[in-house]
Here is the input.
Amino acid sequence: MELPDADLVRRALGGERAAFDALVLRHRPSLVRAASLLTGDADEAESLAQEALARAYAGLAGYRDDLPFGPWLHGILLNLCRNHVRDRGRRARPAPPELLGDAADPSGRRQGVLSGILRQEWNDRALHAIGQLPAPYREAFVLHYVEGLDYAAMSRIAGVAPGALRVRASRARLLLRESLGSVVDTWIRRADDPAAS
Here is the structure.
């Protein structure tokens, strides 16, 4: 039986290193994915996720459970990504899709060669389009539509009003629809409804 995050955090605070390791295994893939999309830098995504986890471990004693652990981690990551993008200046470009590699199908189903090629082509176009969004829109889109956070949690980690985040996510969706077509709506509906996958 898989323990909830809150139980693992309590155990980690009690000195049980394996509890924090379980949290890392649970949340690391999401952090890497979010860092890749937020920064457009696949090479740095792993480092940023690792740094977020290290900071979370160091600051675990200050963690308050008014925000679930996953969104709290994403808040740490969001600040690291903002700093990374700011520090590298205006030279930021989305990572070439070939550097992001293929992600395994989460359901474990095998995919044919043609569907793999089509999926890779879609991923290339989507990553490029997301990377072209203005940073505030990209953050709102990734946190809501990719990571599945609600606007209240996003507000607590981003320091922006929920209504403003809703507008940013909606505008990002419209911009992506302009560049990718209506397939964005289908993709977003699937992200909103795990049963549709």
